[in-house]
Specification:
about 200 residues; globular; 5 helices; alpha/beta
Amino acid sequence: MTGRVLLSTAYLPPVEYIAKLADAEEVLIEREENYLKQTYRNRCIILTAGGLQTLTIPVLLGSFHKTPVKEIMIDYSKRWQQVHLRALLAAYKASPFFLYYFEIIEKIILSGRKYLIDLNTELLMAVTDLMKLRIKISYTSDFSRPGEVMNDFRYSISPKKESGYKPKKYIQVFGSASDPKPGLSSIDLIFNTGVDALNYL
């Protein structure tokens, strides 16, 4: 166990993110930082018949100007919910545990949450619950600069960086168990391995 870990908010976060949760005694999620574009804060990566696909939640344009992530609002003028759900259906309908879990994820995505951090948190709690992973989550009340606290993974878990994390092998609908893809959403792991997901972290 690594004590307390500090993480960014994330949309259906990658397996590496969940691995950090599983190894922590307490999880602190950042909500005071200024929002960063092109990160897992509003996107996830899934594996489809055509390869890797990024699903991005659009946020209101006015949110980009040094706005705390806790105030970032989702842009529902775009049909992102339908796009994401169709993509998940196409990618995972043949996976062993899709029928058991998809409706749970679908209901949350369609819930109409106003703020990105609220949607992300609800999805995170669903994912960890499906994995039977019991964690204690709290939020930051002020901003700590990178390097000021231990076990800070807010910026190292990023689609733009290679962290060195090596995902364990598991059978995927469109992937090869001998070549696991880094950065894949934890939803890929859950749909493919179900109740055994924790064993692959």
